[in-house]
Automatic annotation (TrEMBL):
GTP binds at residues 10-13. Gene3D superfamilies: P-loop containing nucleotide triphosphate hydrolases (3.40.50.300). InterPro entries: P-loop_NTPase, Small_GTPase_ARF, Small_GTPase_ARF/SAR. Keywords: GTP-binding, Nucleotide-binding. It comes from Magallana gigas. The keyword Magnesium does not apply. One of its GO terms (molecular function) is GTPase activity. The keyword Nucleotide-binding applies. This is ADP-ribosylation factor-like protein 6. SUPFAM superfamilies: P-loop containing nucleoside triphosphate hydrolases (SSF52540).
Length: 68
């Protein structure tokens, strides 16, 4: 199944935090070719980036439901 995968690159408030692009590279996310995926830079303390991820996963799930 093409179940979407959402990753949060949390702790973006930390001085030495890696960018979401760097995290995706280190996790080899580009190797995931059978499922849609998305990575969001986030900060759980402030909520920054959380809504972007929720919007993306919601859109992906709506596409799955509408395709049936």
């Amino acid at each position: 199944k093409r179940i979407p995968i959402l990753f949060y690159a949390n702790k973006m408030d930390m001085r030495d935090a890696l960018s979401a692009v760097k995290v995706a590279h280190l996790l080899n996310l580009d190797k995931i070719s059978t499922k849609p995926w998305h990575i969001c830079a986030s900060n759980a303390l402030t909520g920054e980036g959380l809504s972007e991820g929720v919007e993306w996963i919601t859109g992906q799930l709506k596409e799955i439901v509408n395709a049936k």
